[in-house]
Amino acid sequence: MIGPGAKGGTTVRDTLRGWGGVTAMAVVCALVALMALCLPLTTTTPSARNATATTRTAETKAEKKCVAPEKQTLSPSSADGDTIRAIKERKGGKRKLIVGVDQNSYRWGYRDPNSGKSAELEGFDIDLVHRIAEDILGDPDAVQFKAIPTDQRIPAIQGDRVDMVVRTMTIACDRIGDVAFSAPYFKTGQQVLAPKSSPVKGYDDTLAGRKVCTAAGSTAHSRLERDKEAGELPADTDISTTVPNQLDCLVRLQLGEVDAVVTDGALAASQAAQDPTVELKGDAFTTDYYGVAMKRDADDLVRRVNQILVDYRKDTANGWQASYDRWLSATLRKDAKKSEPPAPQYLRTS
User: Fold this and answer.
1) Would the pLDDT of 18 be above 70?
2) For 117-161, what is each residue's pLDDT tens digit?
3) Which pLDDT score is estimated for 2?
4) What pairs with residue 279 in β-bridges?
5) CA distance 291 to 293
6) To 10 degrees, the CA torsion angle through 38, 42, 43, 45?
7) How far is CA 281 from CA 22, 112, 141, 144, in A?
8) Pick from 281, 236, 277: which is nearest to 263 by CA?
9) What is the pLDDT of residues 261-310, one digit of tens each?
10) Would strands 121-122 and 109-111 be described as parallel, antiparallel, or unpaired?
11) 133: which of 145, 146, 204, 345 lies 20 to 30 Å off by Cα?
12) Percent of the chain beyond pLDDT 90?
């Protein structure tokens, strides 16, 4: 319903009108519910809750001291450690890199029904995954993709369901206590998406009295909560609408259930390309960086991914720039310099 194949004068919002749109939405809701049922259930004991509370208190103190989280990563190395050896020695023919990705973000990680390739996953993030698999396992297709909702990215890593997450994941202070990040591979910033006819002008007072949608567990939602508490967002802005996947916000916007969406500008631009009745409003009001997320103790894997990123950016023929030109230049800008992260800086060198 929001795929890239829609053309001509009929927009997704028009398509959603009538019983056909209701049926489509019912199917989407059923799929979302099914995905939720597939997630593992956990039981939290009182001792575990106390331990979690203690950990969160320590992390909160650490967050206050956190400066430039994108620089808090390990120096590059091509050496194999315990984590990489375990990936290479998987039993039962499962010698694959297991990666959490998105399958609904246009030009980042999505299935194009018009590709003629059995709707294989493709996009900017997917290109990077193939490059990592090629370096570690010698085969770019030695990957097991797992579709992970936005709010399940960190639990998937901590629960050993994936080796890493490559899913437009922002490197943030409130996350570096839970997972380890690579050096940045993309620069973006939070931005507002709203209908072209909307009086909303950006991240400002025009959001007063408006309902804003964000993804649960996203950097955008955390920012809105902080800004509202600090009085930097109108007090009557309703930020209660959260969804498991960021793309669900676009559906809510199309249905008229919310007035605006706040998300990464890079993702918002792709969504505006899917639905020409919406547009980015105002400038980005943060500077954020995407990183590959891994387990906290997977030092060898973090270092290896950082080395891969160094080589990926240097490869002008089949690296970062080529992937940007293929997937993102049409929805963002021809000049990739504004999206390319600065030269990486590392937390320590040994």
Assistant:
1) no
2) 667 899 999 999 999 999 999 999 999 999 999 999 999 999 999
3) 54
4) 194
5) 6
6) -170
7) 29, 27, 39, 37
8) 281
9) 999 999 999 999 989 999 999 999 999 999 999 999 999 999 999 999 99
10) antiparallel
11) 345
12) 71
Residues contacting residue 107 through CB under 8 Å, at least 6 positions apart? 123, 124, 270, 273, 327, 328, 330, 331
In Å, the largest CA–CA distance within the chain is 62
Which candidate, 81, 298, 80, places its Cα nearest to that of 181? 298
Task: Extract the tokens encoding 38.
Answer: 């597939």
d(CA 250, CA 6): 15
Name 14's Cβ contacts closer than 8 Å, sequence gap at least 6.
none
- How many C-beta atoms lie closer than 10 Å to residue 327's C-beta? 21
Residue 257 token pair: 């259930």
Provide, for the chain, the percentages of residues in helix, strand and coil under a 3-state DSSP scheme, each rounded to the nearest 5.
Answer: 40, 15, 45
Token duo for residue 254: 């199309």
Outline where the chain has alpha helix (H): 12-15, 18-38, 46-65, 82-88, 124-137, 153-158, 219-229, 247-254, 265-274, 299-314, 320-327
Report pLDDT for 92.
66
| Residue at 215: amino acid letter | A
Q: Indicate whether 73 pLDDT > 70.
A: yes
CA R_g for the chain? 20
Phi, psi of 187 (to 5 degrees): -110, 135
The pLDDT value given to residue 116? 66
Please write the tens of the pLDDT for every residue from 216-271.
999 999 999 999 999 999 999 999 999 999 899 999 999 999 999 999 999 999 99
Q: Which of the 8 DSSP states describes residue 60?
A: H
Going by their DSSP bridges, the two strands 238-243 and 211-215 should be labelled as parallel
Q: Which long-range contacts (CB under 8 A, 24 or more apart) does 276-279 make?
A: 276/11, 277/11, 277/12, 277/13, 277/195, 277/196, 278/193, 278/194, 278/195, 278/196, 278/250, 278/253, 279/193, 279/194, 279/195, 279/196
- 228 contacts: CB under 8 Å, gap ≥ 6: 235, 237, 239
Return the closest-CA partner of residue 147 out of 216, 241, 244. Answer: 244
